[in-house]
C-alpha cells in the first residue's frame, strides 16, 4: 500500500476542533434526514491530533487528509473515502470502517484494535496532481512511506478486505478475522498473526518471512509462491489433517454409535473415544446426543454443532474455533485450555450439571481462549473461567451468577458490567 500526498507540495488548510465539530453536526443531520445537513468533506485538510471519537462520519470524504494522531475510538466511518489519507499513530480502536476506501492510506503505528474493516479496500494507490513544470506528478508524504508498518490490528475484522500489495511489515494482526481477504503479493514480513483467521484468504506471492503464524487458521487459503521462511507456524491449522483423520477410523459410524448409546441408556450402540481426532470432515453433528464424549485435543474447527448435547464431555485442549454451538448443552463439560475464539455459543447451556442431591459439576473453562466468542443469553451460572481469555467476547444478557473469573482477561468484553 503506497502512500500519497506531501504537506510541502500541497498546501493543506488546518482546521481546529470547533470547525470539525460543526462539520460533524451537519453531516449527522444529513445522515438523519434532518434539515440543514451537509456531507462532511475533509479532503486535503489537516486534522492531525483532533478528536473524532464516537462521531458518525459514514460516507465522509477524507481524501488526502492528514489525520496523524487523531483520536477516533468508536467512530463510524463506513464507506468513508480515505484514499491517500495519513493516519499515522491514529487511535481507531473499535471504530467501524466497513467497505471504507483506504487505498494508499498510511496506517503506520496506528491502533486499529477491534476495528471492523469488513470489505475495506487497503490496496496500493497514488494521487497525481498538476505540476507547472512536470505535468502530472505523484505525491508522497515526506518521510512517510505508505504502509501499515507497525500498525496494531489485533482482533480487527478484515473479512473480505482487499489488501493486495499492502506493506505491513511488523504489523500486529493477532486474532484478526481475515477470512477471504485478498493479500496477493502483500509484504507481511515479521508480522504477528497469532490466532488470526486466514481461512480462504489469498496469500499468493505474499512475503511472510519471519512472521508469527502460531495457531492461525489457514484452511482453504491460497498459498501459491508465498514465502514463509523463518516463519513460526506451530499449531497453525491448514487443510492437512492433524492427529487422527476421519479417513483413518470410521468416525462417522463411531459418533452415531455413541449417540445411540446415550439415547438408549447403553442398550444399543457403544461409547466412543475421539481423543486427538481431526473431526472437521464430519461437517455437522447438529443435534446429536454426545453426553460424556471424550474428545480431548480433538479438532472440531468450523463444525455445525447447534443443539448438540455434550453434558459432562471431556474436551480438554480441543479446537472448537468458529464452531456453531448455539443452544448446545455443555453443562458440566470440561473445556480446560480449549480454543473457542470466534465460536457461536448463543443460548448455550453452560451451567452446572446436577449429579445427585449433593453433587454439582460446573462447566470448567479454565485457561480457555474465548476471544471474540458470542455467549449472548447463555446460561453460565457457576461456570469456571479462571485464567481464561475473554477479550472482545460478548456476554450480553448471559446468566453469570457465581461465575469464577479469577485471573480472566476481560479487555473489550461486552455484557459483563457489574454482574460479576
The strand order across the widest sheet is 1-2
Secondary-structure element order, as H and E? EHEEEEHEEE
The name of the CATH architecture of the largest domain is: 3 Solenoid
Tally of separate helices: 2
CATH class of the largest domain: Mainly Beta
Q: Work out the strand percent.
A: under 5%
Segments where pLDDT lies below 50 for 5+ residues? 1-9, 134-139, 141-146
How many beta-strand runs?
8
Calculate Rg over CA atoms.
25 Å
Structural class: little secondary structure
Task: Summarize the structure in words.
The model is unreliable at 1-9, 134-139 and 141-146 (pLDDT under 50). The two termini are 44 Å apart. This protein folds into two domains: 1-172, E3 ubiquitin-protein ligase SopA (Pectate Lyase C-like); 241-420, Pectate Lyase C-like, CATH 2.160.20. It has helices spanning 17-31, 251-263, and strands at 13-14, 45-46, 128-131, 135-138, 244-245, 277-278, 353-354, 360-361. A two-stranded parallel ribbon has the order 1-2. Helix content is 7%, strand content 5%. It has 420 residues and is low in regular secondary structure.
Amino acid at each position: 500500500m503506497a502512500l500519497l500526498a506531501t504537506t510541502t507540495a500541497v498546501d493543506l488548510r488546518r482546521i481546529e476542533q470547533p470547525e470539525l465539530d460543526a462539520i460533524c453536526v451537519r453531516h449527522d443531520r444529513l445522515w438523519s434526514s434532518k434539515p440543514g445537513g451537509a456531507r462532511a468533506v475533509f479532503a486535503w485538510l489537516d486534522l492531525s491530533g483532533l478528536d473524532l471519537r464516537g462521531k458518525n462520519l459514514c460516507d465522509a470524504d477524507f481524501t488526502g487528509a492528514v489525520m496523524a494522531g487523531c483520536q477516533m475510538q468508536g467512530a463510524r466511518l463506513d464507506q468513508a473515502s480515505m484514499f491517500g489519507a495519513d493516519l499515522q499513530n491514529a487511535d481507531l480502536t473499535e471504530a467501524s470502517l466497513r467497505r471504507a476506501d483506504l487505498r494508499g492510506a498510511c496506517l503506520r503505528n496506528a491502533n486499529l484494535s477491534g476495528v471492523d474493516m469488513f470489505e475495506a479496500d487497503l490496496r496500493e494507490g497514488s494521487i497525481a496532481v498538476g505540476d507547472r513544470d512536470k505535468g502530472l506528478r505523484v505525491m508522497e508524504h515526506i518521510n512517510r512511506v505508505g504502509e501499515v508498518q507497525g500498525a496494531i490490528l489485533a482482533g480487527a475484522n478484515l473479512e473480505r478486505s482487499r489488501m493486495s500489495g499492502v506493506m505491513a511489515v511488523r504489523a500486529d494482526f493477532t486474532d484478526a478475522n481475515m477470512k477471504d481477504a485478498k493479500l496477493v503479493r502483500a509484504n507481511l514480513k515479521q508480522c504477528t498473526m497469532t490466532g488470526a483467521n486466514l481461512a480462504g484468504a489469498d496469500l499468493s506471492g505474499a512475503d511472510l518471512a519471519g512472521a508469527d503464524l502460531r495457531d492461525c487458521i489457514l484452511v482453504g487459503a491460497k498459498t501459491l509462491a508465498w514465502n514463509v521462511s523463518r516463519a513460526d507456524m506451530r499449531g497453525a491449522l491448514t487443510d492437512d489433517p492433524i492427529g487422527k483423520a476421519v479417513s483413518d477410523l470410521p468416525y462417522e459410524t463411531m459418533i452415531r454409535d455413541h449417540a445411540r448409546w446415550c439415547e438408549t441408556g447403553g442398550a444399543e450402540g457403544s461409547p466412543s473415544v475421539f481423543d486427538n481426532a481431526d473431526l472437521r470432515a464430519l461437517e455437522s453433528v447438529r443435534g446429536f446426543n454426545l453426553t460424556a464424549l471424550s474428545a480431548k485435543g480433538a479438532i472440531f474447527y468450523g463444525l455445525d454443532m447447534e443443539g448438540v448435547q455434550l453434558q459432562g464431555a471431556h474436551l480438554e485442549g480441543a479446537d472448537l474455533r468458529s464452531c456453531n454451538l448455539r443452544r448446545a448443552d455443555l453443562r458440566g463439560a470440561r473445556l480446560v485450555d480449549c480454543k473457542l475464539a470466534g465460536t457461536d455459543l448463543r443460548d448455550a447451556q453452560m451451567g452446572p450439571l446436577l449429579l445427585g442431591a449433593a453433587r454439582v459439576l460446573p462447566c470448567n473453562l479454565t485457561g480457555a481462549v474465548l476471544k471474540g466468542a458470542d455467549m449472548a443469553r447463555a446460561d453460565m451460572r457457576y461456570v469456571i473461567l479462571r485464567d481464561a481469555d475473554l477479550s472482545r467476547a460478548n456476554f450480553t444478557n448471559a446468566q453469570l451468577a457465581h461465575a469464577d473469573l479469577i485471573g480472566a482477561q476481560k479487555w473489550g468484553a461486552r455484557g459483563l458490567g457489574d454482574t460479576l
